[in-house]
Amino acid sequence: GGEVENSQTTRNIVLVPVATIGCGKTTVAVALTKLFGWGHVQNDNIIGRRNRPQMFAQAVYSALGTSLVVIADRNNHQKRERKQLIADVLNIVPEVKFVALQYVHDRGNYDNIRKATRERVLSRGDNHQTIQAGSKSQEEIIGIMEGFLSRFEPVDDSGSPDDMFETIIDIDATASSRDNLETVITRLHSEYPKLFKEMPSADDLDNAIEAALNDYKPDLKHD
Ligand code: IDP
């Protein structure tokens, strides 16, 4: 949609992180829920083994019933996952707008991304929704992380499915979650001003990230 349409948007927005393990997407998602009361769907909200991708999309749809904005918190690092999520949500509710939160993965920057994400996950990995660090060796964890890195497909809005994103917000995977939270909020505010009543202060952002880092108790699904 165009500018006028966007400036009137107040609901039915799905934020779709595009990331690998340890980028900080859950931390930013939790901070956003603390600041704005938005919905947050994680894979570990999904019970059972069958049809998990469809159930994830269903949970996103359900959360839209009570929240203006819902964060679809999984890696969505391949086009196949993004296509499934977008198609399944649109199938239930056609008027949703999708916004990518892309943790940029330029191949030339992989060593810096490895350094940042490993440091975060290996120091606090017991609490990770995808990796239970305590029960795995460092090598196994690094192996799982490398799998996500090698499969990562950048958002490419010149074709399907990424041309379905109305807005693409690029995020620095090596930056702090505090800075990335600000990047996301600033850009959302410029695209969808009606989403916000009062903008949070710098202190509010600090506090939301600190609380997100402290609260952190997800669980251990592998998808
Ligand atoms: P992910 O959802 O992208 O895999 P998170 O689970 O949010 O990433 O973060 C991975 C780990 O790094 C968590 O233990 C989290 O508490 C920690 N973390 C996230 N952001 C920061 C940061 O800015 N500084 C230090 N640690 C962070």
TrEMBL record:
Q: Which GO terms describe its biological process?
A: tRNA splicing, via endonucleolytic cleavage and ligation
Q: Which domain of life is it from?
A: Eukaryota
Q: Which UniProt keywords apply?
A: Ligase, tRNA processing
Question: What range(s) does the tRNA ligase kinase domain occupy?
Answer: 14-173
What molecular function terms (GO) are annotated for this protein?
ATP binding; GTP-dependent polyribonucleotide 5'-hydroxyl-kinase activity; phosphoric diester hydrolase activity; RNA ligase (ATP) activity
Name the GO cellular-component terms. nucleus
- Family the UniProt entry places it in: Belongs to the TRL1 family.
What's this protein's name?
tRNA ligase
The scientific name of the source species is: Patellaria atrata CBS 101060
